[in-house]
Each structure stands twice: as C-alpha cells, then as structure tokens.
Design a protein that fits this description.
It is built from 11 helices and 16 strands. The chain is an alpha+beta fold. The protein folds into 2 domains: 175 residues, no CATH class; 173 residues, no CATH class. The protein has a 7-stranded antiparallel sheet. Strand 4 and strand 5 form a beta hairpin. Helix 6 packs antiparallel against helix 7. The longest helix has 35 residues. The radius of gyration is 26 Å and the shape is globular.
C-alpha cells in the first residue's frame, strides 16, 4: 500500500531562495507549455499538443536557457509537464460529462507551490547523509536541506515533492510499504452521526464536541481582511510591503485554522480506530448539503424575488464547512485501512427520524434539534444518539449482506 509523509524542512536563507527560484522556473515551464497548447489549438487548425511532444522538447529548452531551465532536474520538469497534461485530461472529462469545464489557467509565481520528483535518487535524495544524526534531503540545484523528521519512514520512498506553504517549506514523501500489522481486535462495533452542534455522536451515547476553529478565528480573520481591503487594487509587482504583510496575515490565519481542523480530525479518527473493529457512518453528499438555495421569483412582481432562507442557509453552510466532515471521513477511512478495521458508509435518509425501538419513521419523532420522542411508542433519547444507532444497524445489515 502507498502512504504519504509530510515533514517540515528548515532551509538556510540561500537554500530558501534557491527553492523559490526552482518553483518560479517550473511555473514558467508550466505556463509556456500551456501557451503552446492554446496557440496550437487556436491557430493550427485545432491541433492538440500531447505530453509526449512537449517532453521531447525539454532537451532543447534546457540547452536554450541553461541558467534557468537547465539548472533543475529533468525528471521534475517532466513531472510538471505531466501535471499540465492531467489538468487537460480532467478538463476534457468534465466537458464530456456535461460539468462546468474549468479550462486550465496560467499560474502566477505565488500560485505555483509544488514541484514533484518522480523517483528517489533522480534529482533528489531522501536521507542523503545517513551517517549524520540530522535527517537531510538533497535537491538538485539546492543542496542538502535539514528536515524535521518527527516520525520514522517505514517502507521504500517512491516520490518526493517540495511544497511551499506561506513561509514554510515541506518535503512530502510517497512511500510504498507492505500491509501493516492490524491492531488487536476489540470486539466493539460503533455507528457515528456527524453534526454541527456536536462534531459526532456514537451509538454508545458518547459525544465529541465541535471545536469550531473557523468560528473562533472569525474576529481575527475579519479584522485582517478589513485591513487588507483598505489597500487599493494594484498589480502584484506594484504592491507595497504593508500590502504584502496584510496578504500574508490573512493567509496565515487561514492556514492555522486548516492545521487545527486537520489535527482534530486525525485525533478523533485515531480514537475511533483504536476502540472499535467496525465503524459505520453516513454517506453524506457534502457538496449538495452546502449548496445555496435556488432563488424564488415573485409571480406577482416581475424582477422581484420571494424570501428563500438564503441567509440562514449560509450560516448553516459555514458551520458544515467549518466542521470539516469530508476531511475527517477521508482520514478515518485511511487510518482504518492501516489498522485492519472495517468502515462502511450507509444511506443517511431518516436515520434521525426512525425509532430504534419500534421502527416508526416520521418527522414528528424529532421535535427539536436534540430531542427524539417517538410518537408511536414514546421512546425518548438524544436525536444524534438515535441517528448513530440506526447508522450502526444499517451498517451491520450491509456488512452481513455483502458476498464473502
């Protein structure tokens, strides 16, 4: 199985400058290849340029511009061209399926943050100084960079990527490893119900509070965005130092919230995986859940619209996005696979409206957000706990019905 590791790098000032130049030159290569594809389609009778043709031109490009393009790894430049080819493949796939196409765009220097090296030892080397107590990674044209390796790497390193996040630099490793040893069986089965008031409720009656990282940082983020809005809109190369500081402040706050959300998702998922052998959750369509309501035209007044609850729905959408359900479920699935646990997604319809005692289903069973009261048998419980219990039962039915 494949696994990714992300480590903070600590480059010197000169190495950080070289890493920035590497991103800049790869960005220039990406934009040049994109321009070639556009020109060929527009002016050469709709000719399509493929990855193989552009990769064959790399040798001439490197010899023509040795100071910039010839300075970096050939395989990393091929990976950049392959990245553009994947963007076009996704564009044509969306066109065929009738989705919004999203034509590949040119990248600014500050919007091109990743360079991939497809093979360890080809333009890069992980743990390049094995006899040194400090772990280092070597990149062609940059040198040996110190790495804060906070955990051991198990398996064979396949690819290495450099990523810039604000003023920080990270090394991302893709590692091939054998199937890890599963955790000891606990004999426990659980269903979880994701929510906004509580992050999740389990069928055992436990609750995980919602940290609301985005909500807690809203005041600071609002102040930073207001400070940024006071600057006039100018070209990126004409911005003052104060303008750049304001931009970095907003970006830093967003990154902090993102890291907090990831940390909470990892810890919550790990706790579930360690305690339970089987985990059932709702198969949520989060993109549909956070979609804005359609406008309601007023039939009596042309050009006017009736209230559609957009303001309250926008608040709910922010809360759902702040909870980070999608990230959590992705992490939970990955951790369960590594630990030998089983995770099953079930249909979420009526899970919080069905009585676990008598099976009666109706909207009146849930009079409030938290309370569940069955109008048929009188069973009373927390609505989220009832939803988690019904999710567990549906998951067990689906597991037992699956072919061996």
């Amino acid at each position: 199985m494949m696994r990714a590791y992300k480590f903070l790098m600590r480059p010197t000032v000169r190495q950080a400058q070289a890493l920035g130049e590497m991103l800049r030159d790869h960005c220039s290569l990406y934009n040049g290849a994109l321009q070639e594809r556009r020109d060929a389609y527009r002016h050469a009778s709709k000719t399509t340029v493929r990855y193989g043709q552009q990769s064959a031109q790399l040798k001439d490009i490197r010899s023509f511009d040795p100071e910039r393009q010839g300075h970096w790894s050939f395989s990393s430049q091929q990976a950049t061209l392959r990245r553009l080819d994947k963007a076009f493949a996704a564009f044509f796939r969306r066109v065929r399926s009738g989705e919004k196409p999203g034509y590949p765009r040119f990248r600014g220097v500050n919007w091109f943050d990743t360079v991939e090296f497809p093979k360890d030892g080809d333009g890069c080397r992980w743990d390049s100084t094995p006899h040194d107590p400090v772990t280092r990674v070597r990149f062609q044209g940059v040198g040996h960079i110190k790495v804060n390796q906070h955990r051991p790497v198990a398996g064979k390193v396949k690819t290495i990527s450099v990523k810039r996040e604000g003023k920080r630099w990270y090394a991302i490793l893709t590692v091939e490893q054998s199937q890890p040893k599963p955790l000891p069986a606990t004999g426990s089965e659980v269903g979880i119900d994701l929510g906004v008031a509580n992050f999740l409720a389990t069928s055992d009656g436990e609750f995980a509070p919602n940290p609301r990282h985005g909500h807690r940082a809203a005041e600071k983020l609002e102040a930073a965005q207001q400070a940024l809005s006071r600057f006039p809109r100018v070209r990126r190369d004409k911005r003052t130092k104060n303008h750049r500081r304001a931009v970095e402040k907003v970006a830093d706050l967003h990154r902090k919230v993102r890291r907090q959300r990831l940390d909470h998702a990892h810890k919550t998922a790990l706790d579930l995986v360690r305690k339970h052998d089987f985990i059932a959750h709702e198969n949520l369509k989060i993109r549909n859940m956070v979609r804005a309501p359609a406008p309601k035209p007023d039939p009596t007044t042309p050009g006017a619209f009736l209230p559609n609850g957009a303001a309250s729905k926008a608040g709910l959408n922010r809360s759902i996005s702040d909870a980070g359900w999608g990230v959590f479920l992705t992490i939970l699935t990955a951790k369960a696979e590594s630990a030998g646990r089983e995770v099953i997604a079930v249909d979420p319809r009526n899970t919080s409206r069905t009585c676990p005692q008598c099976g009666h289903t109706c909207a009146e069973n849930r009079p409030t957000q938290e309370k569940f009261h069955c109008v048929s048998c009188g069973h009373t419980a927390h609505a989220d706990t009832v939803g988690a219990l019904n999710v567990l039962r549906a998951g067990l039915v689906r597991r037992d019905a699956a072919p061996a």
